[in-house]
Amino acid sequence: MLFGARGDLARRMLLPGLYRLFRAGLMPADFRIIGSGRHEPDGEFADEVHAALEEHAAGELSADAWDRFASRLSFVASSAEDGRALAEAVADGLRELGDRSRTLLYLAVPPSAMLGMVEMLAASGLSGDRRTRLVMEKPFGADLSSARALNGAVHDHVDEDAIFRIDHFLGKESAQDILALRFANGLFEPIWNRRHVAAVLIDVPEQLGLEGRASFYEETGAFRDMVVTHLSQILGFLAMEPPSSLDARALRDAKAAVFADVRPFDPAAAVFGQFEGYRDEDGVAGDSSTETFAALRVLIDNDRWRGVPFLLRTGKAMAETRQTVSLALREPEHQIFDCRSEDIRRANELVFELSDDPQIAVELRVKAPGPSFGVTRAPLTLDVERATGERGLGPYERLLHDVMVGDQLLFARADEVERLWTCAAPILADPPPPLTYACGSWGPDAALRLAEPFGWRLPDHC
């Protein structure tokens, strides 16, 4: 059952993801997809879904697969005030599918609607069945108090082991490559600490503006939407201690432990921005102070990372769309080469491109060809899919499949969420005023100064 089934996320990601899983044979032998929302479609829901697949999965549509998939689709209107018809439709579906079937409730709704939807699920009996799994979209609350209230309301009716707080960045093959590179290779884990790493940069600029999401963005802003969720979860993968095993409990224990060591975010070490023309967008207040850009310097108080800055940056309407993680390594203790020139001043870097085509690069200094002993920079680059000859699942496909099989490895736990809101509290209480930046730029100049002396990898060092 998909709440928000007519929304942007469902059209772009969730419904195409479910269709791809169906084509790949990774859906149950029999299933039903019940879309829901406040307003009925003007025509058939299946026609809306087909239009979404034509736009976002056009090359994968086939008449036979679509007909079989479409026969499982239906739509029932519901709201936070009334879920009776939806509960009846779910009960009918469960009777058709048999006693061993499960219900997956996916809440693709904004943070302000989440608590009301949770209460409706409880009142209608939809969340009380132990066979039910609840999927919740980020951000999980808007601050610490709302996150605690939301977790408390959900825990009144659903066990934690049946709650899947989804963050699609963790479903990316490239994000999971961080774990594999660290913990499956003796070459890297010994240097994954403050003695060898000078700075860690997590950089997720976007060229797109609001794209019709003004009301959502006015409610959340870049800091809540991206930093307290995606970027912080990637930080957890990068900074955690080695988990005792690769299972959900051990991995999430390791993430929770490093989040406990993260210092509360300092407003003096943060820069907010708002792109020119934001206030002219439909649905945006004329005096809006919502940030469309956020950059901050994060510190971790433990033996592994003390003194190493984690630099986080994201924004809308920027120069380029990239999702890049880089570890800047320290200089050799004894340097015999002249590395002062601008083009080679950055030391070695380990770079992950968190794109749909996972790539890993190690930036090295090498001898420049010729009669002298000058050095230049050169990358060792690995295209994971080309090297292995295999293509992974998309992030939502991977995570939807994990929900179906009950694997919580790549999902956030309640204590992680609440700790990250605790870290965010100082900035939420005293946010830096957003600085105006030009569309197509790299954000406010103050964010460039924030990253000194290392500098952002993008755009000058790609």
CA-to-CA gap between the ends? 42 Å
Secondary structure tally, helices? 13
Helix content: 25-40%
What shape does the CA trace take?
A: globular
Low-confidence stretches: none
Strand fraction: 15-25%
Rg, rounded, reads 23 Å
**What order do the helices and strands follow?**
EHEHHEHEHEHEHEHHEEEEEEEHHHEH
Give the overall pLDDT as a whole number.
Answer: 92
Total number of beta strands: 15
The secondary-structure class comes to alpha/beta
User: What characterizes the major β-sheet?
Assistant: 9 strands, mixed
Task: Give the strand line-up of the largest sheet.
Answer: 14-13-12-11-7-10-9-8-15
Brief account:
This protein is an alpha/beta fold. It has helices at 8-23, 45-56, 63-70, 84-97, 111-123, 144-155, 173-183, 214-239, 248-261, 384-388, 395-405, 414-429, 445-450, and strands spanning 2-3, 33-37, 73-77, 103-107, 132-137, 163-166, 197-205, 270-275, 293-298, 310-315, 324-329, 349-353, 359-367, 375-383, 435-437.
How would you describe this protein?
With 462 residues, this protein is α/β, with parallel strands linked by helices. 35% of the residues lie in helices and 19% in strands. The chain has 13 helices and 15 strands. It has helices at residues 8-23, 45-56, 63-70, 84-97, 111-123, 144-155, 173-183, 214-239, 248-261, 384-388, 395-405, 414-429, 445-450; strands at 2-3, 33-37, 73-77, 103-107, 132-137, 163-166, 197-205, 270-275, 293-298, 310-315, 324-329, 349-353, 359-367, 375-383, 435-437. Strands 14-13-12-11-7-10-9-8-15 form a nine-stranded mixed β-sheet. A six-stranded parallel β-sheet has the order 3-2-1-4-5-6, sandwiched between helices. Helix 5 (111-123) packs parallel to helix 6, helix 8 (214-239) packs across helix 9 and helix 9 (248-261) runs parallel beside helix 12. The chain is globular.
